UniProtKB/TrEMBL annotation:
Residues 1-42 form the signal peptide. Its EC number is 5.2.1.8. Residues 69-161 form the PPIase FKBP-type domain. Residues 1-21 are annotated as: Disordered. This is peptidylprolyl isomerase. GO terms for molecular function: calcium ion binding; peptidyl-prolyl cis-trans isomerase activity. The keyword Lyase does not apply. GO terms for cellular component: endoplasmic reticulum. InterPro entries: EF-hand-dom_pair (IPR011992), EF_Hand_1_Ca_BS (IPR018247), EF_hand_dom (IPR002048), PPIase_dom_sf (IPR046357), PPIase_FKBP (IPR052273), PPIase_FKBP_dom (IPR001179). It comes from the Eukaryota. It catalyses: [protein]-peptidylproline (omega=180) = [protein]-peptidylproline (omega=0). Residues 161-196, 205-238 form the EF-hand domain. Keywords: Calcium, Endoplasmic reticulum, Glycoprotein, Isomerase, Metal-binding, Repeat, Rotamase, Signal. It comes from Limosa lapponica baueri.
Amino acid sequence: MGAHLPGGTVPRQRPPPSDMGRGLTLLLLPLALLAAPAQTEGGRAAAAEEVKIEVLHLPEACSPKSKKGDLLNAHYDGFLASDGSKFYCSRTQNEGHPKWFVLGVGQVIKGLDIAMMNMCPGEKRKVIIPPSLAYGQQGYAQGKIPPNATLIFEIELYAVNKGPRSVEAFNQIDKDSDKKLSELEISQYLKEEFARDGKKRHPSVHDEILADIFKKNDHDGDGFISAKEYNVYQHDEL
């Protein structure tokens, strides 16, 4: 069973609870990606091209504005610039609920990560994304996107929430305040989240998730997840 610490998708239209205890609940759910991170030849996105942004609607009270690491809730439609055909519509998935994802960490294509920075709830944008910041020379056959395709997205943002890897979330898990998370601390937190969630699970699920968390996050293999390893979004100081 795969897991991220913490990160996932919330299959509801309402914003998640403000208390950071719910942040780690997200790791119990698989992340619904819109798309894999885009790459060009050699695995590097070209930097020469830019995303073109047109603001279609801007609320009078435009706050808060999105930043890297924030948890966003949005609807978006995707079109091929070449012929205007629609290849993606978030309203046709997940019973029509808007999509949740963390901004700026590769959970959507690079162009969308760029296009949705500094965006506020209620704002609508039309963006044009060049191939180098979308699916590049390889395209994305599963999504009916040909090679070297320029993409157009119409986006409506509903919510901007503090991301799941915030200072508050880390400190809540770090019971002894030593700026690193032990296996015991994360194990206890998982047990608390399982109890709060109320769903029956086989005991092995806890062990599988715990092992997966350390496999993905304990980069130096010292048996702890440091503040630096935890704060992969680099938008807060720990």
